[in-house]
């Protein structure tokens, strides 16, 4: 016959081992501590639940094989296990960004429920203290249950993290594209602004040059009007032109 401790070890150790193999691709080096942390939390939960359950059985005469005493004892042990194991797994998950923190609690609760179901259907073949080798068929059932549970939960989390990762990658890509477009727009606006400034400077330079030319031309005209050409008589030249025009008309 297989005892409860051996069944629990077969179920939880295989479940944690498979989850570690699946999660190490998402958790990185932290995944190597998943099974170790979970096993240590499981052992600590076993000790704490024993300190509470054993005195209840001895002092208060709580019968673990009679309803509803067995439900009470199992509920106490399940609460202690869920708190300790969830806390141990959360210590690893809190350092990751993609993995949801609630996974520790979901993983523990689902594991406890599946283990309780396996115990319920195999209770007639379990003992408080028995030989694990003698109940190898029952042990295979708990090994299969742990393997299936660990694979399902671990793979579900892996798919979830994959979707979150793809969404984060898409958001990052969109952000980069938006920033690139914004930089290109600002660059085009800057170039257009510089071009307009250069054109405005050119127009201003041309306008200044034109004004200076007109001023110089006006000053030259005034100077000529005031001083004239000493070697050339403008009035006689104009009179001769008028005489030539009159002769031509006649």
What does this entry look like structurally?
This protein has 250 residues and is mainly alpha-helical. Helix content is 81%, strand content 2%. The protein is built from 6 helices and 2 strands. It has helices spanning 4-27, 34-59, 69-93, 103-121, 136-227, 234-249, and strands spanning 2-3, 126-127. It has a two-stranded parallel ribbon with strand order 1-2. α1 runs parallel beside α5 and α4 packs antiparallel against α5 (136-227). The chain is rod-shaped, with a radius of gyration of 48 Å. The termini are far apart.
What would you say about this model in short?
The chain is mainly α and 250 residues long.
């Amino acid at each position: 016959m297989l005892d409860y401790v051996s069944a629990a070890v077969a179920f939880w150790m295989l479940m944690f081992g498979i989850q570690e193999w699946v999660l190490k691709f998402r958790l990185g080096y932290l995944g190597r501590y998943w099974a170790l942390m979970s096993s240590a939390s499981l052992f600590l939960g076993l000790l704490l639940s024993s300190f509470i359950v054993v005195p209840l059985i001895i002092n208060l005469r709580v019968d673990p094989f009679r309803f509803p005493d067995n439900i009470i004892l199992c509920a106490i042990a399940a609460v202690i296990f869920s708190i300790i194991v969830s806390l141990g797994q959360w210590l690893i998950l809190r350092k990751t960004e993609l993995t949801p923190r609630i996974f520790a609690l979901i993983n523990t609760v689902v594991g406890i429920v599946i283990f309780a179901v396996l115990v319920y259907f195999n209770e007639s073949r379990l003992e408080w203290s028995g030989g694990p080798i003698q109940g190898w068929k029952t042990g295979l059932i708990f090994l299969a249950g742990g393997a299936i549970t660990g694979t399902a939960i671990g793979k579900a989390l892996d798919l979830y993290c994959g979707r979150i990762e793809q969404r984060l990658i898409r958001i990052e890509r969109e952000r980069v594209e938006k920033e690139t477009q914004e930089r290109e727009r600002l660059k085009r606006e800057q170039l257009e602004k510089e071009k307009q400034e250069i054109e405005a400077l050119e127009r201003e330079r041309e306008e200044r040059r034109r004004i200076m030319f007109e001023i110089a031309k006006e000053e030259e005209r005034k100077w000529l009007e005031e001083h004239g050409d000493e070697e050339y008589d403008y009035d006689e030249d104009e009179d001769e032109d008028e005489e030539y025009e009159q002769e031509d008309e006649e």
